[in-house]
Write a structure and sequence with these properties.
Elements: E1 2-4, E2 14-18, E3 23-28, E4 30-32, E5 40-42, H1 49-66, H2 72-94, E6 96-105, E7 109-117, E8 125-132, E9 136-146, E10 149-158, E11 166-170, H3 178-193, E12 194-195, E13 200-201
Antiparallel strand pairs: 1-2, 2-3, 3-6, 4-5, 6-7, 7-8, 9-10, 10-11, 12-13
Length: 204
Amino acid sequence: MQQTRPLPDCHPELSVIDWPSFREYRVENWRLARDGSGNVVRGATSWGWIDLCLPVVISFIWPRVISKSYSFSGSIMLCAFVVLVVGFTIYCRCVQVLHESVLVFPANGIQLETHRGYPLLKPLFVSRRFIHASLSEDFVINEGLRRWNVRYYLAAVHGSTTDKITLDVAFENILPHFPVLLEVYQGVQELMFYNRTDNRHTPI
């Protein structure tokens, strides 16, 4: 395994990992600040203001739970509320996107992955979408609207058993900036579709 960062100065969140049988383009959920300060802007955080407020809320509610001034049903409701709040906070922390990847298997196809979990631990959940080489039509940079912004994104164009053309978006949660998309696009095209020696798309 060999890992490199092709854009270390402006987009170090992108890494290219060469495995024996495939190549992985991984985008981690953080980036450098756009103001040139070099500060890291993290998309997945281990702690936040909600975590700091949670002990205060529990310390305010718990004396009322154990107080005899509340009925049994009232205490059960407060306990259920505390459990729901704590459970929801833990759930939100454990389903954050840690990184997304495009795996290129030249002889087989393309796999899109999203890894979720707690930032200080290994990923807890992984979702995968595999596109077989026989169905893959192209890998393109497209543009779309996100709220009030025009954003570029990568998409795998492929057919299906019903002869319909489908787009599967890569890095759909992180949506990295254009230089990252261009680097991944050129790598996927070189490995899967484009033969630079004769200037033609050729199957591998």
